[in-house]
From TrEMBL:
This is Aromatic amino acid hydroxylase. Keywords: Iron, Metal-binding, Monooxygenase, Oxidoreductase. It is an enzyme of class 1 (oxidoreductase). Its cofactor is Fe(2+). SUPFAM superfamilies: Aromatic aminoacid monoxygenases, catalytic and oligomerization domains (SSF56534).
Amino acid sequence: METHFESNPLIDKLPKHLKQFIKPQDYKDYTPINQAVWRYVMRKNVEYLSKVAHESYLEGLQKTGLEIENIPNMYGMNRILKEIGWAAVAVDGFIPPNAFMEFQAYNVLVIASDIRQLEHIEYTPAPDIIHEGAGHAPIIANPEYAEYLRRFGEIGSKAISSSHDYEMYEAVRLLSILKEAEGTPETDIKAAEDRVDYLQNNIGPLSEMARIRNLHWWTVEYGLIGTVDNPKIYGAGLLSSIGESTWCMTDNVKKIPYDISAADQSFDITKPQPQLYVTPSFSHLNLVLEEFANKMAVRTGGLSGIKKLIDSNSIGTVELSTGLQISGVFSNVIEHEGKPVYVQTTGNTALSYREKELVGHGTEYHAEGFGSPIGMLKGINLAIEDMSPRDLRAYDIYETEKVILEFEGNIVVSGEIITGTRNLRGEILLIKLKNCTVSHNGTILFEPEWGIYDMAIGKEVISAFSGPADVNSFDMITHVPSSTTIKSKSSVERQELENLYKNVRDLREGKNATKTIENIFEIVARNHKNDWLLSVEIAELAKKENNIDFLNKVVNHLAIVKQNRPEIGHLIDNGLELFLESATA
């Protein structure tokens, strides 16, 4: 298989759990119609966006090696993106939000390598190479914006999701696939739309991931920059939609100064946006992002952070004040006076320090979960982590000593100390006990029969975030999408049309073609009455050859197509305007 893919040091350094989403780009899968769709959209975009897009867009097209005439291949993109410190990988449609964000944190652009159908040339709800390649790639050539994108990924990948978020991801992914696939029964689309509508209307409190995805949508995807009265486009969703990039500049779309309130403004991916946010500068985007991050559990920790992880029902991490990191699926927290005094995970758990798993504390050792008190000892102002060797000796927290440690919140640990684990600064991270019992108000949390007890040391939870501290601690190769993109169906009629598109492409490029331009047009007009883009390309060639009689014949045919299909009349006019002074036939 020809993949047209050149790796890049950034891709080589990606962790395995991200590499599972990467798929090869087989350039031969792109048909002549696909190439014509890319060419049409790019020509219209460059012509129109040169007036309304941020100045970085056109500069970025050149820097990132994107061509107007040809769908980009990953080989060329990676070779050139390498020069600006980025890379690109191909994926299959939507990938989970956390993974998408994490790719950005590694300076890797995720590109859905499929391309929209001709029938969806203006807009598709499914991510495609026009949206990702022609939308995202050019703007990252702007260093200030590229750093925002990287920083957004770094912060966003730590955002805690809810089970509802994953349901919504699966529902939107399926809907986008069904809407983009040709011949999908209306009943299937309606069922998928109903599912998305139900989830959107029963969303409940927004999770961190839902809120930061809103910020992503209103900036990276649908952002405007400048002033409310004179905005420019920089969002990839607008840059890649020849319909919405025009619509968004009208008074029909409300323009709002961008601030953190955008985090609470949800969106519908299947419809044009009724309002858009305008940032005064790319630097302002970072200010809002930091303002949002300051309220995330990754920075605030505490009881609320643990509760968010419990609600997520997926792997997350809490970090204690000593730097000890507990990673797993959190199932319970005991609280006292608004603070966590005991945390519990279920199933595979790993303990780390500074994102590196502690020796002997991986998921094999903690396969049944992990529980530990957190906080201060009752009646003692000095936290265990702050005790000097003399303090530890005074409180019998010492090897071979039998101790009874009563924590605030009535958590009691009794047992015989075996040893302790310290960090590089000499602070105690863990205390290992045997013959240990842990209880809370008489309820047993750990029994001696269960084996050795490892007690985490930390007076408070300073951080809580999605995913493991050390990505190597868990088997993260679990990506099994519930739906896959649907390829165009082959037929004798479609194959004939594809061959005609190829002939026109060959003629335009000065290659030998099996048919003359007149022969091609005759077959199109007779056998493919609904097709319009090929006739536009034929008219362009006729104009280039100054064959005025033939040009008029083709334009008259397109006028009939417009009468029969008024919904695509503006697309025909827009295509003709690229090379004709007047396109109102």
